[in-house]
Amino acid sequence: MSTIRKQSILSSIVIYIGFAIGLLNTYIFGREEYFTTEQYGLYSLFNALAVLFSSLATFAMPAFIYKFFHYYKDHLPHRKNDMISWALLISTAGFLLVLTAGLVFENLIVRKYSENSALFVQYYYWLFPLSFGLTIYTVLEAFALGLRKPVLMSFFKEVEWRLFTTVLLVLFMLGVVKDFDLFIKIYAFSYPAIALSILIYLVVTKQIVFTFSISKVTRRFFKKIAIFSFFVYSSTIVFSVAAVFDTLVVASVLDDGLAKAGILGLATILTSVIQAPQRGVINASISSLSRAWKGKDLRSLQHIYERSSINLLIFSVVIFVLLALNYTEAIDTLKLKPEFKMGFYAFVFMGLTRIVDMGSGVNAQIIATSIYWRFELITGFILMACMLPLNYFLTIQFDITGPGIANLISFTIYNGVRIWFLWHKFKLQPFSKNSLYALLVGAIVYAICHFAFSGIHGFPGLILRSTVALVLFVICIWRFNLSPDVRPVLQTLLNRLQQMRK
């Protein structure tokens, strides 16, 4: 667990650096003098659809790499490893199919979005280079994670990609990029840029080779790979649609849909800040989970499952409380568009969804790397069966707050089913009494800071609420030893602070 802990921490640090850059980008987007809410909504919708299109295009090749990486690595010499070659070829072919479908159904897109999201229709074609770049990057990222490069992959996706956007925003502000038309067209090549970066790294370091000679591993496991990829791809479609359906519904059915998609986009970005440590833990644990299943090491699986749950729960509660305490105040203090405050309750429900999801640990990755990976498809259909109708009807009923409520209900059911499954099959479960204590601490800290400092506004209020909340969290985590991984990290930080004083 120490290796996973170290890589998780480093990945999370890199991810949070990326999110800090992302928040700077959001701040620029949120200023009235640079972009309209509708333009920011287009940016958010582009990102959501790029994820959906790339998920459809990859044909589950990232999951194939996660599952079978060690089989190829352990049984083939480096120059004969054909895994990444076939994965990239199949994903490229998949993108061509997505592109074809996008052109065929263009008239449907125009009918659905021309009234409430006309700007999206205008720039529809520029979505495809963005999606292709993300498709190639996703496959290369999976391969690099198998090589145990989680920190570097976090840098490429979380830092470099956002820096690309930052530079583009600065050029826009300085007038070098003359208008939004040129801005969005250049932005469409942001994901291709990071895909090219990781490809260059892998080629230069000689960690990737391309061969289309069918290896003995591919021949031996072809049937298993095909079945596995089919089921995972089916579940990927389900999860991808579920992940972006709220933004699509808001942009399609609500008046000023693209503007409201922008408001929802801000809430989504902030909840993704909550989710940042989950990405680091997943990146660091996938390889270990795959090897543990290969060795049928249930003890290691339980260890990773329980530790991931409490660590992610603590982090998610801390970040959620900090953001909830300062959401509306930060919009006023930073002089962002006042309509962004409409997204507060959407943020609350989406943030609670992230707490539920992260507190459930790496159950998705445990199932996906096990012999019961087909169950991911079943839970995916359960998620979609709950989320799609709930999102549609609750959005109509409660405007942009509706998707948050729908997500909370759907993900609670979804994770509950997966937790039950792992307990039923393997007696694996993620929770302990500290899970309850972490939630109680979060509720108490929020109540104290909200009522004690509600009358203090501006930067003093933001700083005071955040500082006091963090101090209270650190004291409680230390005093009650809520996580065997968090306390050693705090101890290390304290020791280094004492050394600096000397």
From TrEMBL:
Main location class: membrane
Origin: domain of life: Bacteria
Cellular localization per UniProt: Cell membrane
Membrane-spanning residues: 9-30, 42-65, 86-105, 125-147, 159-177, 183-204, 225-245, 257-276, 309-328, 340-356, 377-398, 404-423, 435-456, 462-480
Record's keyword terms, sorted: Cell membrane, Membrane, Transmembrane, Transmembrane helix
Membrane-topology annotation of the record: Multi-pass membrane protein
Listed PANTHER family: O-ANTIGEN TRANSPORTER-RELATED, PST FAMILY PREDICTED COLANIC ACID TRANSPORTER
Protein's UniProt name: Lipopolysaccharide biosynthesis protein
Organism: Terrimonas rubra
